Amino acid sequence: MKQYNIDILAISKTRWKGVDQETLHHGYVLLYSREDNHHRAAPTNEADDDVKDSFYETLQAVTKDIPKHDVLCVVGDLNAKVGADRKYCPEILGLHGLGQINENGALLVDFTLSNDLVVGGTLFEHKNVHKYTWTSPDGSTRNHIDHFLITRRWRTSLLDARGYRGADAQWDHMLMIAHIQIKLRAQKKTQQDLKKLYDTDKLQD
Fold first, then answer.
1. Does any domain span residue 26?
2. Name one GO molecular function term (predicted).
3. Do the beta carbons of residue 83 and residue 96 sit within 8 Å?
4. pTM (predicted TM-score)
């Protein structure tokens, strides 16, 4: 994390059970959560429709309770190819996707539309070598199946999103990094707040 200047890191395909947190070296805090004892993940494109529907129903159940004004980011290995054809859904896709959309990609696009998100990895121009996030074991196939989604309202806060081949992740996926810069407006103090701060009631005596 220090090498790539990462503040928040999302890890897919972990094996921790339960709900807990641990403080690691360098002061990083690891949060993990699993409701059952099964090592479940995003279904592959070849999975049964029932499995795919169940996954997105669960994902939707998690996101629906997040306040609309919050910055919502959905990140991870989603096993979905959204493709390079922006005409499919210009509201949420940029000009710089990779490959052809597949069935999982269509499901991801539907979820993204329903929650007013954009697919960050398609928004920025990069060489193809920095777009793909997964390589098959024999090295013959490369796809962009790990994604960073962000609320469309906060689209301008996303400065970049791309894959990094140099990171030693010890698996067949590449590290994907998104750069976000969020400017929050300061809350204006009301007269009531100032009264509490300076205790102006004492001026009456």
1. no
2. catalytic activity
3. no
4. 0.83
In which element (H, E) is residue 195 found? helix 191-198
In a domain, 136, yes or no: yes
* Residues 3, 5, 11, 16, CA torsion sign: positive
- Count of domains in the chain? 1
Distances (CA, A) of 24 to 28, 81, 140: 5, 34, 37
- Domain residues for the domain of 48 are 41-183
How distant, in Å, are the alpha carbons of 77, 84, 138, 162, 202 from that of 40? 12, 29, 25, 26, 62
Could you tell me how far CA 8 lies from the centroid of its own chain? 11
What was the pLDDT predicted at 31?
A: 87
Which CATH number belongs to the domain containing residue 168 in this structure? 3.60.10.10
Integer Cα distance of 193 and 39 in angstroms? 50
Task: Compute the average pLDDT of residues 145-160.
Answer: 95
Rounded to the nearest 10 degrees, how much is the dihedral formed by the CA atoms of 167, 162, 103, 93? 170
What count of other Cβ atoms lies within 10 Å of the Cβ of residue 86? 16
Mean pLDDT over 170-196 rounds to 76
Q: How many residues does the chain have?
A: 205
> What does the alpha-carbon distance between residue 105 and residue 173 come to, in Å, rounded to a whole number?
17
